[in-house]
User: Fold these one by one.
Assistant:
Number 1:
Amino acid sequence: MTSATDTELDVLGALLAFDFIGFAQKSAALDPTDPHYGQAVGAAFGIAARRRFPQGATPQEIGGYVAEFLGSLDAGAGDFDPAFLEGLMADGLNGGTPPGGEHPDPEATIQARLVLTLRLVRELGLDLDQQRELLTEATRRMTA
């Protein structure tokens, strides 16, 4: 496991704990030029998405979920392209990255996955121990 993986999961852990100071401090340490950038958050996001939709989801269900998600944002909904979010959800449900490899905008991808993971964790009602377990499972997947 790389230090990028540790840092990303620390960032996600701070976000899930609503530790916004820690989130900001840890986020500053992320390096978008790292070849592993976004992979750990992507692993955690995929785990949460598959827990939320254990039977998978149709494109229509994904579209409805994204529309509901965007509608729930007080501000910032315009920062996210619905088709991009739908693609991320489909990728997460299918276990990873799009057919062509990684997403072309790693910054937008990690930001969207962080926000979606927060939403999924809240919907699933994961308590602190279950959140830690999610991060541990993501770590295991990254080291496998």
Number 2:
Amino acid sequence: MTTPHPLPDQWAINVNPVANLAILTLLDADGTHREIGFHPLTAPGTAQRAIRALDEITDPELRASAQKLIDSFYQRTAQAKANADAFGTAVPDQQHLFDRLRSELPGTPVDLGIDDEALTIVLTLTAAGPTAGALLTLINRWPGTTSPTGLAYGVTQDLTDGTLTVTFDQPHAEKVLTWYREQP
């Protein structure tokens, strides 16, 4: 059995009873929502409040749900870090590749983000005007862009008002950057 994770210093869990359940929201020191969970069949009279320490929760089942919320946050954070580390290992020269992309596609932001559900890296390239055509040409040269049924799963393209946005999930981002590394 693993040791339960502590509630981080200056963080809180907001308990908000609604009907017969409680919405539990993990808040960081700045009050930003970090994780949300639910506790079913909340006892009548449960009041909305912010908990700063788990021992403030007297109901053992509600306390267990709060602990589960904290543990989920730590697990998701560890998973996101592991995925980011894996991306860094797969593409150790990412800054060089991003600089090359920006040079080849002037004015094109190269953004890395996180898929909040999958906790994986997302690569987004956005280009407007003539640079959008150059981005489309580059992406179409990569053999992993398409599948027999159209765009490959994990690759999206959106053209709105002359601005092309291409998004790659982590596996495809790693593959396209690995491919791009070998291009002249």
Number 3:
Amino acid sequence: MNFTQKSFFYIAIFTFGLSLFILSSCKEKELQAMHKIIKNSEDIELFLVKETPINPVEQDSSKTYLCDYEVYEKVFTSSAQLDSLKNALLDTTNYISDVEKKCMMMPKYAMRLKTKKDTLDIVFSDNPCAKAIAKNSLLKTPKIEEEKKKEDMFYVDLTAENTITKLIKSIIMKE
């Protein structure tokens, strides 16, 4: 390779590395914000959701949606179960921040966590791989309600052995 080719090659590698760093630092900031809400949450609810998201414009106002997924059942939980779920959500070993899984999101479960100032909705998928979508009410952009966009949400990849979905499954089985 001549000097020009080498220069372009090194610039391309640097640009790629920089973009990976920027993407991972953005996800880290979102995870930190999410953890702050989880840690300070005063009210936690667990739900079962349908697998297909509904466009915000087409959502029925008489139904509950979390991250655009329709809730079809609220799961009643004890305070001990909620404490276990909160601890699992705060456990950073359940999350993957440096890799983005390329599998389809097919959620079954969702949680709503509330603080005095904020609400965090998280929808969990464990099949075909473990991932989650989170939506923080403070992330909402100042748009007309019918024009809500997917940018209000962020994706979080979970480890295959995460304790979050395992705990949710055990709670649902007991019910």
